[in-house]
Amino acid sequence: MPFPDTLQQLPAQWGHLCLGVERFLHRELGLRTSGRTALLALSGGADSTALLAVLRVLAPRMGLTLRAAHLNHGIRPEASLETESLRGMCTECGIPLHCGTTSVPLFAERTGRGLEDAGRTLRYRFLAGVRRAYGAEYIFTAHHLNDLAEDLLLRMTRGSGWPELCGMRAHNQDSGVVRPLLQVPKDQLTGLLQDLDIPWHEDGSNEDPRYKRNRVRNRILPLLLEENPRFPEHVLRLWRLGRLDRADLEDRLELLRRKEIHTEPGTIHLPRSELVQLSASLRLRWLKDALARIGPGQALAENLLQLERAWREQNLGAVLQFPGDKRARLQKDGITLFREARGLE
Q1: What tens digit of pLDDT does each residue of 223-239 get?
Q2: What is the DSSP string of 134-162?
Q3: Which domain covers residue 296, as residue numbers?
Q4: How far is it, in rounded angstroms, from Cα 327 to Cα 338?
Q5: What is the pTM of this model?
Q6: Which residue has the higher pLDDT, 94 or 300?
Q7: Residues 40 and 121 both lie in one domain
Q8: pLDDT at residue 183, as a whole number
Q9: Residue 335: other Cβ atoms inside 10 A
Q10: Which of 3, 80, 86, 296 is buried most deeply by CB count within 10 Å?
Q11: C-beta neighbour count of 309 within 10 angstroms
């Protein structure tokens, strides 16, 4: 069956799925689509093929112009055949497709990254470049509810705090990345394709247990689903609560950033007059946010809690170290955050 053009061509179940995606984008995310261009990130797998089918139906209703992009990671020999298959699909749908080729293994070797990290880095660099070339406002990826559950579990194993623990963002305004399918379970996407007789390609690397995400997907998540089949629904509820808290926290931090004193590049002073008015939770968030803006290196929870204890005890003159050659000096008039000179080379 060819890709459907309108909701009326879809069975009722899949028409409702498409309308749910439209409501998610417009009502929950507040996305403006009329007169905008969206770049679809396509891999040829079930998820992105379903994204193509859903957005082809929704684009005229939403006033969206669609473009597509596909990056061959240079890992699997069959990837070139998948690229040609995608070309045919996009031609059928009347959507221009920009294809690129890279070598993720070579990049991983040169930079000392793992394959997953290297692939993700190159993929988003590629998508950002194609986005600029097309003048697109958004990059639509095919992450779905199962991906959100996996992401939450991965963040938990890394020790993420709240609200980051709730999982990936549905709309990153800085990068333009939007995840329209984030509330849709994986089985609904494959069910849509099977019902419409739309083919897709399976990536064998998704079963490779060397990758942590695959172990979470194929071992841990099935156990949780066995204990509670509604686990993804609870993840989605937690994600929605986290999204509200994240927005509230960002508003508060924006106000606090205006109180900072910037004496020189790479140095931020947080005044005591402001710090004493904050709860410990918000004070830690401000410190973490300011440290992140000084330079690379993630502030660990134990370091931040140690700084909070020193602050409460008024251990004036103490200097605490953070990753990335960053320091925090406790002073009578507040806390000064800075980088050591060797970290600026």
Answers
A1: 999 999 999 999 999 99
A2: HT-SEEE----HHHHHHHHHHHHHHT--T
A3: 259-344
A4: 5
A5: 0.88
A6: 94
A7: yes
A8: 97
A9: 22
A10: 86
A11: 12
Length of the chain counted residue by residue: 345
Same domain for 274 and 238: no
From edge to edge, which strands make up the β-sheet containing 37-41? 97-101, 65-72, 37-41, 138-140, 177-178, 171-172
Beta-carbon contacts of residue 175 (< 8 Å; ≥ 6 apart) = 124, 128, 139
Peptide bond connecting 2 to the previous residue in cis, omega within 30 degrees of 0: no
Q: How many CB atoms sit inside 10 A of residue 153's CB? A: 19
User: In angstroms, rounded to a whole number, what is the distance separating the alpha carbons of residues 103 and 147?
Assistant: 25
> In the predicted model, what is the mean pLDDT of residues 296-304?
86
Structure token pair of residue 332: 């009578």
Radius of gyration of the chain (CA): 23
Same domain as 233, residue 333: no
Helix (H) or strand (E) holding 212, with range, is helix 212-215
- Tokens encoding 38: 């969206």
Round to the nearest angstrom and report the end-to-end CA distance of the chain.
Answer: 59
The CATH number for 334's domain is 3.30.465
Residue pair 188/17 in contact (Cβ under 8 Å)? The answer is: yes
